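Changelog note: in this version the structure field was regenerated for every chain. One regenerated record is shown below for reference.
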Amino acid sequence: MNSKQEYVAAANSEPRVTINGMTTGREFSVREYTYGVLVPDSNHPLSCVSVSNSSLSIDLWVGCSWQCRYCHVQDTHQDLADQGTMPKRPRRRNQFTVDQIVDELIKHPFFVAGETIISIGTASTEPFAPGPVTESTFEIMDAFVRRGLQNPFWIVTKGGVPKGRKLDIARITNATRGLMLSLCWADNPDTIEPAHNNRFLNAEEAKEAGATIAWYMRPIVPEWSGNRDRIEMMMLWVKKHYGNVIDMIIPGGLRWTEGIENGLVEIHKLPMPNIPRNDNVKMLPQDLIDFIFSLSAEHFPGVPVFLKSSCALTRMLKIPSITSVQAFARHECEESRCPLAQRQICAHGSAYSMNIERAQAILDNLGIPAHVVSWDINRGLVTHPEMSKFTYAVRQTVFKHLAMGGSA
């Protein structure tokens, strides 16, 4: 691709595929490529990179042996095997090497050297699956370090931390702006999460090596294990075994997509939890949120509890919110148990000094064909065409770059 506009046009395309459920034959509309993919073309290196929450995720693999029944990968047609199932054995997505993917990524207007958070396997597989997958995870991080790029890394894992990698982790944390390991455990039954390993395995080694350790308490679902007794049991167990390791806690609910519902109901013949059918929106009941805050104050005093994963990354980086949650997700911001020092940092976020001219310059720098009509701290960004007309990949990137204040 030769221009920013071409990159944006690719990211602003989201082809969909219709599949039929195995049980009822019901039609489901799923994405042909990864949600938020930069280039929806398997013959391009950036088909392995997608906008994922607050990061750009590099996904080399198709398939996952963990086989979580609610996995969001089930909404990605290219990652599915026969009859819509996820392959159990990971295989490489395409022929591109790590170096080819990274070299293409650093040319992309959505990437900012030293700033953009890089996640690994977030949109495809367990990044610490034993063998080649784990090796590739460290290879990706080393590829950035070799290029002198200090971009922070984010790994969400259910596999625990690989043993014997303390020196590798220390090398990466010393050469970059940080490495967050989000250890994902919500004590879901084996009918929902077949793999029941210790998600906190070797977390002490990673912490000693300089990694930030977050307990990703997700997804909490009332119909599965999301009740007060189980939540209290989790709190007590983690406190007893890893209380001195946890830097922050991030509870969260289940997201809905047509692909996730197809996986749960049609393939695994499980009832769909009672959550809103809003595409890629997560839901956690308020009474459980209140209970988690109450318990964490008792068992993890002084440990931040965030309702947004971006807040955890922001805290690691010690910068204003990377998605301006203090302005645009005020309820979650104010409800989170966030240290006063971090709130003071966020009070100096670029959202408060943004104006129409700066916002337009950010869109122009990204190559996004939109005119800024107005900017207001209460109403946010108004453009023509509206941001809602663009894909998630474009919208999320705009919000991140507005929060960064237009870093280039």
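Spot check on this record: The two ends are 19 Å apart (CA to CA). The chain is about 35% helix and 15% strand.
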